Structure formats: C-alpha cells, structure tokens
Amino acid sequence: MTRSRIPQAAGLFLVLFFAIFPFVYSANDYPYIMHTLIACFYYAILASSWSMLSGYAGQFSFGHMGFTGVGAYTAALFSHYFYLSPVPTGFCTEFLIGDQYLVIVDAIGVTSSTLTQDCLRKALAVWDGSVQITPMPVWLGIALGTIMGGVFGLLIGLLVLPLRAAYLALFTLGFSEILRATISAEIAITRGQAGIELPYLFDSGITLFGRHFDKTDKLPPYFVMLFLLLTCLAIMFWLTKSKFGLFVRALREDQDAAAALGVNTTRYKILVFVITSMMAAAAGAVMAHYIRIITPNNLMILQMSLVVAMAVIGGVENVIAAAIGAILINFALELLRNSFEIGPFTLDMTIWRLVVFGVLLMVTLRFFRNGLIAPLIDHFTRGHVAAETVAQRKVAADQAGGAS
Amino acid sequence: MEFPHIFWGVFGWMIFWAVTGSIATRYFYLRRDLDTSNAPFVGAMLGASTGPIGLVPLCLNTPELTTRLMVMPALASVGVLMIAFGFADPENFCVANGSFVASQIVNGLIIGIIYGFMALGLTLIFSILGVVSFAHGEFYMIGGMITYFLTKVWLPGINPILAISLACLAAFAIGAAFERMFLTPMYEGKVDRPVEYGILVTFGLAFTIQYFVQATAGANPLKASRYFDFPRIRLPSSADPWLIKTSRGNMELFETISISNPRFTAAVMCIIVFGALMFFLHRTWTGKALRAVSQDREAAAIAGINPDRMNMLAFALGGMIAALAGAMLVQAFSWLPQVGAIPAMRSFVILVLGGLGSIPGAFVGGVIVGLFEAAGTGCLPDPQKAASYIPAYGMIILTLTLLLRPTGLFGRRFATGAHGKF
C-alpha cells in the first residue's frame, strides 16, 4: 500500500468503526455515548457544509444556523399543523384529498390546554376515540424542510450577489437574526421561546433485520444521521473533484478574473448557497425530530460560533477535515464536562472547557492556517508532491549554480 | 377599516413599487450608460413614496442623481408610512399621545447617541485595519465588568471616574496585546484572505473573553450603583416646576419627558469623549496620522508614518471606546457575560448604515437606529411582540442598506484597501 492510500484506508476504517460501534459497545453509558455521537454527526454536517460554502467557495456566511432553523421549523410546523382524517372535523379548515381529509389545525399559540383548545382537539373530544387521525409522515416533513432550506438559500444567494467579504458576513448574520426574532415574536404560530414539539423520528418504532427498535431507541436515529453525513460528504467530495469545484475555487480566489475567463459566477455562487443550505436544513430537520423540540435559541450566534470554530480547527478548506474536526471537538467538549483537582484547586472544566476551546480556535487560526486535520491528510496524499517540488527546485538551483 | 388591513395594504403597495422601482431604475440607467451606484436606492425610495407617478418620469428622463433627489424621496416614504399608520390606528399611543411621542423621541435620541459612540470604535477599527471586529461587544462587556468590580467589590468607595478610566486602560491594553499577537500576519500578506481571517480571529477572541468572564465572574446579573446624583433643580419655581424637575435618579422636562440618570450621564459622557476624540483625530499629529493611514496606507508610510503602529493604536482605541460605553451603561442595565452581543449587533448596523469608516456617519447612524428602535418598540400594537422584535429592527436597516446603498450614508465611494471592496 502506498503512502497516499493511508487517508483513504483511515477513512474507510472510520466509517466501518462508526457502523459497527453501536453493536459492539454495551457499557452503562450507552444512551449517553450514542446521543453524543448523533450530535457529533449533526455538527459534522453543519461544519462540513459551512466549510464548503466559506472555505471552498469563499462565501463567508454567518447565516448557516438560520438555514438549519428553516429546515427544522418547516418540519416542526408541518407535523404540528397538518393531519389526515377519514371524517371531516367540522371545526378546522380541511380539504378532501382522495378518501382522506387534509386537516389544517388553527394556530392558537401557547395557551393553557384546559381553557382553549385547537380545532382538532375539539373534534377529537366530540368523536371520543371513534375516529383515528393520522399524522403526516415524518420523512415528508424532512423533505419539505430540505426544499425550504434550498428556497431560502436561493433567495439569500440572489440577494448577496453583489456583496463580498465582511459585507456578506454581516448580511447573512442579519438574515439569521431577523429569522430568530421573527420566530420568537410570532408566538401564535411558532409558540415563540416555548418551542414546538415534534414527533419521534420513527413514531411507531421500526423493525430492521428481524429486530424491533422502540421509538426511543437511539440506534435508528444514529444510523439516519450517519447516513445523512456520509451522503452529504459524498456529494461535496464529488462536487469538489468535479468541474464545479474548480469553478467555485476560481470564484473564491478572484471573482472578477473568474468571470473574465468565462465562469458563470452568478450561477455558481447561487448554486453553492442552495446546495449547502439544503444540507444544513436537512440536518436541522432530522436533528429536530430526534431531539423532539425546536426553539429559536438554536439559531443563536453561539451555535453558529461553535460550527465555525469546529470547521476552522478541522480545516476550513477541506470538507472532510472539517467533518472530522467537528466530531473530535464535539466529543472532546463532552469529555471535558467534569472537574479536575490540581493540588488545592478544583478546576470546574464545565465552564473552562469553552475558554480552552476559544484559545484553541485563535491559536489554530494564527499558527495552523489550514486547520489541524487538513494538513495531516495533505501530508499523506500530497506529501510526495511537496517532496517532488523540493527536489525539482534543488535541481533547478544546482543547475543555475553550475551555469554561473 | 381596522388597523391591519389598511396599514398592510399601504405597506404592500410601497414594497411592491419599491422593488419595481429599484429594478427598473437600475435597468434604465444602465441602458443609457449612466452611473448606477445610487439608482436602485433612489428608485426604491421614489417608488415607495409616490408609486408609478414618480417612477415613470424618473425612468424616462434619467436625471442626474443629486443628494437632494436621494434625501427627499427617502423622507417622503417615511412620511407616507407614518401617515398610513396614523390613519390606520388613531387610538395608538404613538398617534394620540403627544407626550408619549416626545419621551420616546428623547429616549431614542439618548440611546442612539450611546450606540453611535460605541459604533465609532468599530468604525475606527474598520477604517484603518479593514476588519470588522466581532469582539467589539466583548470589549463593551469587560468595560462594564471591570468598572463594576472596581466600584463594588475590590475598592468600594473609589471615585467612579477613576474606575472608568482604569477599565478603559485595561481594555486598551487587551486590545493592543491582541492586535500584536494575532492581527499582525494580516498586514504582511501571510494570510490568503485577510478580511475573513480578521473576522474569525476576533470571533475567537470574543468567544474566549466571554467564557473567561463567565468562568471567573459567574453568570449572575450584576449592576453597579449610580455614579452621580442629579443636583436638585426646580425651574422656573419650586412650587410649579413645569420646565425642569430633578430628583436624584431622574429628570423630568415639561412634566412629560422623563430621563433616567444613568442614561443621561452616559450620553453626556459619550458626547464629551466624542469631542475629545475629534480633537485628537483632527488636531494632534497621531490623530492626523491615523486618518492618513485610513485614507491611503502606502502614501502614509512614505510620509513617515508607521502603519503597523497605527493599526495597534486603532484597535486598542476602538476597544477602549466600547469599554467606555460599557462602563457608563453598567449603572443602567444588569450585566452578564453575554451582554455584549446586542450592542455589537447594533454597532454592525450603524457601521454599515453610516458608511465605510465615516465618523459623522457613525453618529448620525446611531441616532437613526436609536429613533427607529424607539418607534418600533413604542408603536407596534402588541407590546410583547414589539419587544421580541427588538433585535430585528436594526438588522432590517442593515440588510436594506446593504441591498440599496452599500456605501451607507456618508461612505466614500472609491476607498482604497481591503475595505473598499464590497
């Protein structure tokens, strides 16, 4: 095996490890570790898609959490307000589709459940269990969320076309903040800071290979998230290796020069926004169904800063390095949730871990501009290129020296 | 007709013609081969205020876009919006109650001056380093924190002015040290994309400072006591003080407008320091050197100014200004490690609204943002909703400015350096 195959072998090993891990591991903290890993995958999707947008295409966006919010809230509102019923309720807005009625529940916001009830609860009280209503399928909500993320990405991509660098960052930050304020203010529809509850990812459990998994089981969401991560990484890896990646990199290095050479900068700028925001929205929707509650605080700048820091520490110009960085850092942050005793001092790492994290971010930026993981990959895959370049230069220098 | 329909009808009409106007004007100006940098803004504002009546002549004649043509439609569209609001909701406090309006305006003005002052620090950093400092809110926060701990915990009874100065010095030192350690590679061309590097590294600083303070000072809200009391004034007579009436913590003008002491002292302090800063920037050698670097780095270097030292000074000074705003406001608001996020966002808004590195722009922008927010919080019919929307008001201004007129109010159109590009 040649040296340049090592990262590929390591990647394969990592994927196999994550695929086998939940079947092998059986300690007491199994649910906790599984939950941490699901969060790791979630952040890995966000960090890698952000690095595609910011590191690879140079569109430095602070609105990535806004897109996850779009996905999560679309899924949440969809499952909260739409139901199928075989009998008309008589209270709600409803349409006949096939032999079922599509019931749209009215928005009542956060109220005491004993005083005011939405129209569906009223109808259920009248029927008294004689009619079975069906909630909308979860996958349809996730798909809708992903599409909505794409639509918003298209809109933002169109609006930011003339903006660059710092202005782009401020505009996307503005988008994210306006979205957050709107969600927290429109309590009647989104329930504001109280948050919307969502159904389980697999509400009636799921049977795989003859084994039934309960709806609270961590294993199905774990594999859903892992599958989503691998799909996103595969798409992005393929994009970076294709002509698309080349054009997008040209866009990052010099937009005017790229346009002069015939790259349709408008199209690629918008496309990269749409693709990455769809990934963020899909991740947000799946995560919301797994956590089962979504609040506007998910869109806060703190969350965004975590994603940015993970991508930067991993390596902002390499999507796979960013994903690995996110997994490692999220895991490390979880491991640091305890206190150390050094002599007479007790160091409560639950607070200090984030200080350490911030310092790590600054130091990485200052001294390891390509992140901590990306150079490692490059060392193996492109190490021979560097060696060849050095050798060529040496030869050239020798020849120049001999000639003079 | 009730409130929502009439207001939203007018609002939708204005939005429609604004969007149409901005696109159509740009198209027509481009076809005649004229300067389009201000066309979308004028088109949008004229469309919003007059609809097709103003837009058609504008597109057909394509006159030169003077300052007057930019200011008048903008004011007119604000006026139309206000009139629509007045007709739609005549019962509203903002329409029916004159004293409420007056006190909202005064309070908006005062808070706007403080915002503007804080944004001034960011403008200074931006115009000289070309970096949007994401740690600006954290400088504001440590200014308040240090002042609180000095006056309440470490040295109770210390003169507040001294405590504020010490807090400013500490912020200055942190800013200078950070600039030396982390921002220097930007100038030497060692970083591929300096603007993004600057944003990220100040972001890291913000993260570190915020959690460091949380780890050391805890996450309980803190509040300093009032620095100064108002002297007791009753004018024109103590029996009937209709003109001005002060108690120790409050001032009442014309029996309608009440201003709280902490905000008033903060605004006065900001104006004084603003004056001092203007003197420094325009009358001293160092200040002139700073402005020279912001205009043209290379030319300043040829003239014997060390641009790197000016970078350090600008960053430290910007941080110090934010810390001063924080130190003055810690007596007005409760202080938490996360308190810097909101004023930082406002500073970004003002930075963009005022224009690239424009110091008067920062002040005017601050006042506009303050008034806009006062109007937004005071006039929306549902107070709970209005309060939840507070973070969005400024951001709406920011996005609109970036879309319609990226140079802001007083921006230089052809600035050099990294911050000249959009």
Shape of chain B: globular
Number of helices of chain A: 16
Q: Biggest sheet of chain A: strands side by side, in what order? A: 2-3-1-4
Q: Determine the mean pLDDT of chain B.
A: 81
Number of domains of chain A: 2
Uncertain spans of chain A:
none
Structural class of chain A: alpha+beta
What percent of the residues of chain A sit in helical stretches (DSSP H or I)? 55-70%
Kindly, what is the distance between the CA atoms of the first and last residues of chain A, rounded to a whole number of angstroms? 43 Å
CATH class of the largest domain in chain A: Mainly Alpha
Strand content of chain A: 5-15%
- Main beta sheet of chain B, described? 4 strands, antiparallel
Radius of gyration of chain B: 23 Å
The largest β sheet of chain A comes out as:
4 strands, antiparallel
* CATH fold topology of the largest domain in chain B: ABC transporter involved in vitamin B12 uptake, BtuC
- Structural class estimated from helices and strands of chain B: mainly alpha
Order of helices and strands of chain B: HHHHHHHHHEEEEHHHHHHHH
Number of domains of chain B: 2
Count of DSSP-assigned helices of chain B: 17
Q: Greatest chain-chain interface?
A: A-B, 44 and 50 residues
Give an overview in words.
The complex is a heterodimer of chains A (404) and B (422). By secondary structure, chain A is of the alpha+beta class. Chain A has two domains: 3-80 and 137-335, ABC transporter involved in vitamin B12 uptake, BtuC, CATH 1.10.3470; 87-132, no CATH class. Chain A has 16 helices and ten strands. Chain A has helices at 6-24, 30-56, 64-81, 119-127, 138-159, 165-185, 187-190, 219-241, 243-253, 255-260, 265-291, 301-314, 319-335, 349-367, 374-381, 383-403; strands at residues 82-85, 93-97, 100-104, 134-135, 196-197, 206-208, 211-213, 293-294, 339-342, 345-348. A four-stranded antiparallel sheet of chain A has the order 2-3-1-4. A two-stranded antiparallel sheet of chain A has the order 5-8. A two-stranded antiparallel sheet of chain A has the order 6-7. In chain A, strand 2 and strand 3 (100-104) form a beta hairpin. The longest helix of chain A is centred in the first third of the chain and has 27 residues, at 30-56. Chain A is globular and about 95 Å long. The model of chain A has no long low-confidence stretch (mean pLDDT 82). Chain B has 422 residues and is mainly alpha-helical. Chain B has two domains: 3-90, no CATH class; 104-230 and 259-420, ABC transporter involved in vitamin B12 uptake, BtuC. Helices cover 71% and strands 3% of the residues of chain B. Chain B has helices at 3-31, 39-50, 52-61, 67-88, 93-96, 98-129, 136-154, 160-187, 194-217, 261-283, 285-295, 297-302, 307-329, 341-354, 359-379, 383-388, 390-404; strands at 234-235, 244-246, 250-253, 257-260. In chain B, a hairpin with a 3-residue loop joins strand 2 (244-246) and strand 3 (250-253). In chain B, helix 7 (136-154) crosses helix 13 (307-329) and helix 10 packs antiparallel against helix 13 (307-329). The radius of gyration of chain B is 23 Å and the shape is globular. Chain B starts with a helix and ends in an 18-residue tail after the last helix. The interface between A and B is large, with 44 and 50 residues.
